[in-house]
């Protein structure tokens, strides 16, 4: 491999004698929320570039803000290490601030380059570039293996889509690149020290015992592929309707946490699903359409990196939402007295997951019936979800709050009780999490911190009358619209 000119400024490349140039050059691949060997553009590039040090970084800031997601990432590391060892490599794990860790591992290993994937939000790699360059190497940031490259699916006039359905139609006409195979890896002449996959900061940051949540996780690249196969074998033409029923857990793929930590790529899912569709499997088109929401969210985040902090429609930053406080705390603890909301919030706390329909119901209740700022809810979901994804979480919270793109109009206020009657007619979901003798209610009681003093036999009165809450929201919306 010719020594790339751009490596010259840091003096002659560090070539280890006795190996050919490619093998002799050591490069680092930072597995940055892409915890797999399959369809991994940064790893494929690193493998072409030299002997690879596979590095995972456990960032304390990530653990503090997103403990469930951090723990979910930590669970992905042992299977990833096993996959690397099967290829004569291994996973080096370091805890700390990414820029500091990268510079240290470059210095420890004499690596000439670091390859990694785009982070979310997409901005902000300058500190990394400087730290890696300061240690004498070059940082290469590669696109994620999403369905389409960011900003590549545009309207006829070349602008970004602001509404999902036309985005979906344009994406559907776009050829989706084939997934990359897992590359052959050359081991470096020496391995830097590794901290191992344990992540005490993440466990300490958890608001509840991780072991309860871990029961609901199937970690690892192989497990994700198995889960995909199992789903494609059971999906039917009724997926679009079945995916709305929270008690029918098997109606959807359950792949969001594997996608969020990067154990499987969207492209791998797309191509396997297309093959299943060609074999006559029903429901695939609707499933691919849901998968495309994830790319739509990434495109929005790429165009507006602050949509997890400010309203995508700026005028909504003046909307009179209330701040955090006792009402928000009752919502977080599943103690609103509204069955579908409380069931969902308890599922979230006990398992790190929450059914999509229930996420919509619980989020709508917070921002409309309680008139509490959507960012309060977004932050709680970011702490508790094992499938936390910065782009998906931001887009969906803004969709529910009415301030995002293609948003559900604010005046369309979900009624949690009628939603329950419609989507959980036999109360299987609500009973699972609210009936004191049910397994879900017990899991929640086990997971909840002692300070919450959860008594499964509690009978809670609704904290707000649903009609009163709805009218209050509509009145506030009316005043807001007339404010000019
Ligand atoms: P399936 O129906 O099997 O769909 C397959 C994949 O498509 C999902 O894994 C997911 O990657 C994608 N997808 C499906 N629905 C959506 C959607 N509405 N938006 C974006 N992508 C979607 N999803 C996350 O992955 N992380 C989050 O942090 C997140 N926060 C949310 C917050 C709120 C308020 C709401 C209403 C939704 C949020 N979602 C989030 C979207 C959705 O709830 C989950 O993706 C879905 O429940 C995952 O279940 P599944 O994998 O079985 O989905």
What would your notes on this structure say?
With 484 residues, this protein is mainly α. The protein is built from 23 helices and five strands. The radius of gyration is 24 Å and the shape is globular. Bound molecules: flavin-adenine dinucleotide.
The amount of beta strand, in percent, is 5-15%
Q: What kind of oligomer do you see? A: single chain
Bound molecules: flavin-adenine dinucleotide
**Outline, from the CA principal axes?**
globular
Mean pLDDT: 91
Helix content: 40-55%
Report the order of strands and helices. HEHEHHEHEHEHHHHHHHHHHHHHHHHH
Q: What brief labels describe this structure?
A:
disordered N terminus, 484 residues, binds flavin-adenine dinucleotide, globular, 6% strand, five-stranded parallel β-sheet, mainly alpha
Per-chain topology:
Elements: H1 21-24, E1 26-30, H2 41-49, E2 51-58, H3 60-65, H4 67-85, E3 91-95, H5 98-109, E4 113-117, H6 126-134, E5 138-142, H7 164-172, H8 200-205, H9 210-214, H10 221-234, H11 239-242, H12 256-261, H13 266-278, H14 284-303, H15 326-332, H16 339-351, H17 356-369, H18 374-384, H19 390-401, H20 416-423, H21 428-434, H22 439-447, H23 466-482
Parallel strand pairs: 1-2, 1-4, 2-3, 4-5
Helix pairs in contact: 5-6, 7-14, 10-13, 13-14, 14-19, 16-17, 16-21, 16-22, 17-19, 18-19, 21-22
Protein name: Deoxyribodipyrimidine photo-lyase
Cofactor: (6R)-5,10-methylene-5,6,7,8-tetrahydrofolate; FAD
Pfam family, one: DNA_photolyase
């Amino acid at each position: 491999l010719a020594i790339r000119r751009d490596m010259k400024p840091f003096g002659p490349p560090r070539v280890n004698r006795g190996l050919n140039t490619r093998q002799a050059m050591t490069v680092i691949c930072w597995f940055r929320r892409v915890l797999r060997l399959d369809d991994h553009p940064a790893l494929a590039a690193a493998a072409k570039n030299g002997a690879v040090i596979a590095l995972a970084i456990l960032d304390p800031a990530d653990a503090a803000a997103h403990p469930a997601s951090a723990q979910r990432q930590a669970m992905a590391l042992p299977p990833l290490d096993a996959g690397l060892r099967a290829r004569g490599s291994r996973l080096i794990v370091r805890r700390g601030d990414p820029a500091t860790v990268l510079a240290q591992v470059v210095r420890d290993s004499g690596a000439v380059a670091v390859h990694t994937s785009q982070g979310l939000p997409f901005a902000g790699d300058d500190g990394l570039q400087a730290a890696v360059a300061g240690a004498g190497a070059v940082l290469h940031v590669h696109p994620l293996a999403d369905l389409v490259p960011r900003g590549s699916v545009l309207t006829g006039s070349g602008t970004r889509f602001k509404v999902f359905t036309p985005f979906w139609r344009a994406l559907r006409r776009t050829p989706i690149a084939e997934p990359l195979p897992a590359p052959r890896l050359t081991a470096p002449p020496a391995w830097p020290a590794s901290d191992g996959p344990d992540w005490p900061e993440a466990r300490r940051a958890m608001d509840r015992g991780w072991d309860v949540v871990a029961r609901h996780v199937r970690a690892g690249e192989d497990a994700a592929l198995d889960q995909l196969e199992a789903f494609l074998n059971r999906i039917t033409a009724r997926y679009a309707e079945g995916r709305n029923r929270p008690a029918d857990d098997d109606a959807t793929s359950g792949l969001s946490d594997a996608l969020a930590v990067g154990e499987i790529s969207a492209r791998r899912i797309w191509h396997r699903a297309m093959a299943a569709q060609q074999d006559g499997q029903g429901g695939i088109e609707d499933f691919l359409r849901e998968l495309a929401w994830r790319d739509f969210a990434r495109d929005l985040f790429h165009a507006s990196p602050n949509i997890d902090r400010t309203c995508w429609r700026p005028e909504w930053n003046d909307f009179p939402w209330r701040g955090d406080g006792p009402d928000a705390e009752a919502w977080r603890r599943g103690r609103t007295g509204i069955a579908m909301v409380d069931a969902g919030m308890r599922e979230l706390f006990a398992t790190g997951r929450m059914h999509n329909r229930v996420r919509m119901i619980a989020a709508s209740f917070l921002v409309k019936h309680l008139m509490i700022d959507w960012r309060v809810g977004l932050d709680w979901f970011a702490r508790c979800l094992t499938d936390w994804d910065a782009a998906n979480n931001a887009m969906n919270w803004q969709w529910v709050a009415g301030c995002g793109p293609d948003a559900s109009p604010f005046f369309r206020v979900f009624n949690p009780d009628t939603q329950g009657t419609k989507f959980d007619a036999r109360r299987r979901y609500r009973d699972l999490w609210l009936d004191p003798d049910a397994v879900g209610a017990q899991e929640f009681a086990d997971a909840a911190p002692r300070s919450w003093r959860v008594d499964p036999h509690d009978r809670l009165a609704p904290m707000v009358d649903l009609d009163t809450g709805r009218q209050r929201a509509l009145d506030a919306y009316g005043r807001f619209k007339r404010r000019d």
